[in-house]
Amino acid sequence: MAPVILELRTPETLVNHDFATEPGPQRKLKRGSVYVEDGSVKVFQVEDVIFSVHTHFLTEHSPIFRDMLLVGQGADGEGSSPNNPIVLEGVRAWDFDALLRIFYTPCLNPQASPLYSASVDETLALLALLERWAMDELRALARSAIQQRAWSPIERIALASAGGADPAWASAAYLDMVLAPQPPGPEEGRRMGWAAYAAVRDVREELAGLPYRARDRACEMLARRVDGFVPPPPREEEGRGVVPRQPVGTAKSWKSTPIAGSRR
């Protein structure tokens, strides 16, 4: 019986796959877009947790891991088993787990990825890990996901301050904090960052005696204090002439209230 020959035409060459039992001429093979090296699975220890993962994802996205893992290692070397793991110091187990879940989340269910499900504190920790390991492409992906999610004003400011979003993305959040009925407290300051907290408090204090044009003045002062601040467009109620919320301490009216029984 004649051998079966499958031909695959490509732009570069014509590749013949000969399944004949008789030996044929040697062909130079090329690696496909997916090629997992034998032994590419390594065991990592982070805190008291061990992970067994494909190193392809780490070396593909991080030059730091590339330098660490592409150095020749024997089959019984570091990372070869749970008894001889690669220990990652100064990293929390949850943060490393979140990073791996970005790689292993099914593409048909992207909302299950930590990029779309992590809390603000978890997201900040993940951003720090991506920066630490120079995973620039993943960090850009994380920034895009962050800006698609709903956050409170404080969370927006915290994420923008950590480089998780463009500064202009948090501009409306700054304005909301400045015009809110109550000033942010120390806990809010810790969460949003002390520099942002100081900017909000300073603007609120300067606006305290200005009953009119508070929004415009707030935008002017925030632009001087917050890098990248862009005045957000007025809300619908402001466009209809409704007076925006006034900061704490703002006079409600320029007219003095007459004392009972006094002449006008």
Termini separation: 118 Å
Global mean pLDDT: 77
The arrangement of helices and strands along the chain is EEEEHHEHHHHHHHHHH
State the assembly state of the protein chains: single chain
* Gyration radius over CA: 29 Å
Helical element count? 12
**Strand order in the largest sheet:** 4-3-5
Pfam family, one: BTB
Protein name: BTB domain-containing protein
InterPro entries: BTB/POZ_dom, SKP1/BTB/POZ_sf
Plain-language structure description:
This protein has helices at residues 55-61, 63-69, 93-104, 114-117, 120-132, 136-146, 153-161, 171-179, 186-192, 194-207, 214-225, 236-239; strands at 5-9, 14-18, 41-46, 49-54, 86-87. It is mainly α. The protein has a domain at 165-251. The strands form two sheets. It has a three-stranded mixed β-sheet. Strands 1-2 form a two-stranded antiparallel sheet.
Properties at a glance:
BTB domain-containing protein; 264 residues; 3-stranded mixed β-sheet; 9% strand; SKP1/BTB/POZ_sf; mainly alpha; BTB/POZ_dom; two-stranded antiparallel sheet
